[in-house]
Amino acid sequence: MNSGDKKKKGLDGGWGWLVCLGSSLITLSLRSLDPSFGLLFHDLFIELEIDSTGASFIMSILDAIVNFSGLLIGPLLKKYSYRQVAFFGSLLSCTGLILTSRANSMFYIVCTYSVLGGLGTGLAIASAFVALNTFFQKKRGQAVGFSMAGTTLAMMIVPQLIHLLLNSYGFRGAMLMVGGWALHSTIGACLLRPFEPEIKSTNADTKDIGRLFEGTWSTGMSKAEVASCLSISAFTDILARLLLPTIFDRLGFKNRTVFWVFCILVGIGRSIMAAQSKGILLIITFVIIGFLRGATLVNLNLTVSEYCPLNKLPNAFGMFMVFKGLFVVMLSPLIGYIRDVSESYALCIHVMTLMISITFITWSIECMYRTFKNRKSVLAKQAQDIVIE
């Protein structure tokens, strides 16, 4: 049996499912905290007099560092295995979270939570999906969906857990517990056994989770109600990530098309959510948005790999992460500034919907152009065939 046969035999199964489990464990340990950022830091921000602009700045730096770490993945994986890089990143992220428990200023939070934690998280998650992409080809969409489903499952539990920890231990004690929770990512890193030592392909799918629920206090909701809404949304999110990839793969839908459609639906759903107050309508909106968000995020980075050859994927994905980081750095403080000036979370959500709409419109124009061009080519070929006959 030659090496090519071995590669084909090892793809889409076997140890790959344990790699999928390890990837899921890493992402749920390091990224499941994101939607509960406002819930966890709310009292500390009041104590330190950090406004919405400052909170947005902290998160924008975190997201920027996570994305910019993509530039380091290629060079690191040329020298070390993705298991080693993921393990180091996991330890780095856990250290940042534990040190954040002693936070006494915004600068301290940026250094530990945003920079240290962001760098570790970016390295660990990107390395995990290098392994995931290596072990899966035909079932890649399903594998990504399953691995991300673990994160969403944790999102159902984490808000309730944080609410209990805050009531029992306060912010500093709760943050130490969160650091311990994140340490489980090292177990996931140990499951990332290299498929072939020389294979360094990547399909990182860093989780990009919306933090729009931070504004729920403006509707008069308590922390317990916020935690419940987050869990409800996470439940429908996990359903979408588990069910839709398999369905879309069998129907032959392109990842970009699915992302394009569900992206605008998420924007519309969030704007509808902004107009709701406490009650059953708000809960129904959370249910729908959670499902739409899961369908959107599971196809986000798969869109990049769909249009890029495997040998060029590391550079393409690194460029994608850098541009995403640049937009986060530029736009997140702007959103926070709009919130402070207008004192309205609803306006911030509508502004983000407008940004999504701009992307949707530009892709729509491109889609119409491609359709027109392809149709024109077909007609020209048919006319040429008629002339020849």
UniProtKB/TrEMBL annotation:
Originating organism: Bombus terrestris (Buff-tailed bumblebee)
Pfam families with a match to the protein in the record: MFS_1
Molecular function in Gene Ontology: monocarboxylic acid transmembrane transporter activity
Entry superkingdom: Eukaryota
Transmembrane segments: 12-33, 53-73, 107-132, 144-162, 257-274, 280-304, 316-338, 344-365
InterPro entries cross-referenced by the UniProt entry: MFS (IPR011701), MFS_trans_sf (IPR036259), Proton-linked_MCT (IPR050327)
Keywords linked to the UniProt accession: Membrane, Transmembrane, Transmembrane helix
UniProt cross-references to PANTHER family, sorted A to Z: MONOCARBOXYLATE TRANSPORTER, MONOCARBOXYLATE TRANSPORTER 9-LIKE PROTEIN
The name this protein goes by in its record: Monocarboxylate transporter 13 isoform X3
